[in-house]
Write a structure and sequence with these properties.
This protein folds into 2 domains: 56 residues, no CATH class; 31 residues, no CATH class. It is built from 3 helices and 4 strands. A two-stranded antiparallel ribbon has the order 1-2. Strands 3-4 form a two-stranded antiparallel sheet. A hairpin with a 6-residue loop joins β3 and β4. The radius of gyration is 17 Å and the shape is elongated.
């Protein structure tokens, strides 16, 4: 099970500026220690610790309707899908 530091208002996971993705902690204890340090550094209690399962329950991924660029058919896609990974973009279909 993985644990993440989550902004309570926006639902975004904390990630270090040098990392591309959110930092996952293997133990809840490690995540709580990091959360306490981060909140102390910011002088605000912004972040909380959540397991991945709890995060997906509280902040589900919104689905949006898009149009396939090649076939013209409509399909549902996660809102946070990167542009280049979407069949609705030209970069997806180019080599």
């Amino acid at each position: 099970m993985s644990f993440y530091l989550v902004d309570k208002k926006s639902g975004r996971c904390f990630k270090k500026p040098s990392h591309l993705s959110a930092e996952a902690y293997p133990t809840e204890r490690g995540a709580k220690i990091a959360c306490t340090k981060l909140n102390a550094k910011l002088n605000k209690k912004i972040y909380t610790v959540m397991s991945f399962e709890a995060f997906r329950e509280e902040f589900p991924v919104k689905m949006v309707e898009r149009t396939n660029l090649m076939s013209g058919k409509k399909f549902m896609e996660a809102e946070d899908t990167p542009y280049f990974c979407s069949p609705a973009s030209e970069t997806y279909w180019s080599n």
